Amino acid sequence: MIGGIGLALNHQDANLFDELYRTWQKRRRMNAIRSTYFDGEAALKDFGISLPPQMRGINSALGWTAKGVRAVTDRSKFEGFVSTSDETFGVDEIAADNQFEIEFPGAQVSSAVHGPAFLSVSHGDVQAGEPDVQVIPRAADLSAAIWDRRRRALAGFLSIVDVDRGNRPTLMVMYTPEKVITLTRQERIWSAAWVVTVIPNPLGRVSVAPLVYGWELLRPLGHSRITRASMGYSDSALRTIVRSEVSSEFYSAVEYWLFGADVESFVGNDRWSAVMGRIKALDTESNAKEDKPDLHRFTGASPQPHVEQLRMWANLFADDQDLEVKFADSSNPSSADAIFAAKETLITTTRDANTTWGAGAVSAMQMGVMLRDGLSALPAEMRSLRGQFTDPAIVSPSARADAFSKLATSIDGFGNSEVGMEYAGLSREQILRFQAEQRRTQALQLPANVAAAAGRTALGDQDAAIASR
């Protein structure tokens, strides 16, 4: 445990902090490695066999890992929150105040990179311009969480808010079911001290919602999409690319051998210079003074084997990440059915991710409403709240329109319902705009309709009076 913190906390909180901090340190290295691969900054891992010393420090990069992550996150489009209840408790306002539409996709990417990401929920400082309820995304490389299997919720959460130049934490926030503890490191003349601030947690649960990718029973906080296999394939592919650069140097320049010349005139000071020499000499034993040097030309080896090897790594990486066939080979265009079949696994993966990501977003909004309204229990109307995503199975507009028209004619009211408009491919924003335009049109037509109805009533009274005479 960090020195001084154990003295500032009670026994139970100190043990929880110690477990959380050890968890963060344990996962820190692997999280940093995965972030490096995602950023395309993984260094070349050379075996020291085939590359010359001059090329071992080459700055090569490969963006396959980011492609594998964004293959899922780019298909996952969060539309908003929906409910079967007419009362949504102002969830859209909380989301708008926290720029949820902008920050949530970033949390999804972080979740796919590390396995989990988190949404912390707390009261904001309204006087400082913060919203009443703050929903802040937290990345796993600066967080630690402990899962309570019996309660199916977090038992504790630690957020590393700030670090110094030596990557030592200077500001941390620990969330427990009973309280939120802020730990601030303050430098003093001889040593550093930790200042602890405790705020009661009225929810009775850790006010942090996990966004999990790749949930499994034994891994309730998920798996990273950047698998060890995918990192290995990326390393191998990067070595292949660099080796092909070396091979291209040989292939692009014709090699000549000069027989009967003085070898010492052509060999350089070091072995690599001798290998790279375009003209190589070979002594021949001959006593005839009239013998002359003989020049022969030899072509270099083709770099095609490197191309085939790179395609092999690309195929293995695409299979691990459920990418389309064209990622590895786009020479032969596939049919529409073949392309859709190649995306089927990726579509299923995205739908599964949307389920767990949506559950985390809903949990954060539910806790936000409870904090804002001072509730100790979740209202029954909020249990039907769901996160809505666009369908990851992207189909052509004509096929979608054809299916929509058939359903609209066979199901009464389907065409004008929100479900029907969603099926037609309209976004949540477009549906809301359409409904608002309908209400404005009805409001403008209301006076005319009232006048017309009054006219019909007066005409009916006049006809009735004539008939009674």
Descriptive overview:
This protein is an alpha+beta fold. The protein has helices spanning 5-8, 11-38, 64-73, 91-97, 100-114, 228-252, 271-276, 304-321, 336-373, 397-410, 418-423, 428-468, and strands at residues 78-82, 116-123, 133-139, 143-148, 153-163, 169-175, 179-187, 192-200, 208-212, 255-259, 279-282, 294-298, 386-389. Strands 4-5-6-7-8 form a 5-stranded antiparallel beta sheet, with helices on one face. A 3-stranded antiparallel beta sheet has the order 3-2-9. A 3-stranded mixed beta sheet has the order 11-10-12, with no helix packed on it. The relative contact order is 0.12.
The radius of gyration over CA amounts to 34 Å
Name the helix and strand elements from N-terminus to C-terminus, one letter apiece.
Answer: HHHEHHEEEEEEEEHEHEEHHEHHH
Report the uncertain regions.
Answer: none
Structural class by helix and strand composition: alpha+beta
Portion of residues within helices: 40-55%
Count, helices: 12
